[in-house]
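User: Quick sanity check before I run a bigger batch. Here is a single chain. Can you write out its predicted 3D structure?
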Amino acid sequence: MYSNRSCRTIRAFLRSMEQRNEGQIVAISSIAGFCGETNGIAYCSTKFAIRGVMQCLQMEMKDKGLNGIRCTTVCPYFTRTPMILNLGMRPTSM
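Assistant: Done. Predicted structure follows.
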């Protein structure tokens, strides 16, 4: 669901970036986008999808000769949020 929102947001800005061959698209994924975890089907699969979208987009820009458009995926490690604390992780391990 969130990966679809990311795609729609990117699409809204991409055309003008392509016309100028300039811009940077930044997407937030997670370390969970690299490996699955117990009870993480929805979260991890979304983060995997965001990484995939950005990788494909970068390849498409390169194939079109649009080297002025950068695609960046930020993958933070665990941060102290209610979601992580509810998983039972200790703050000292973050």
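The chain has one domain: 2-93.

User: Great, the batch can go ahead then.
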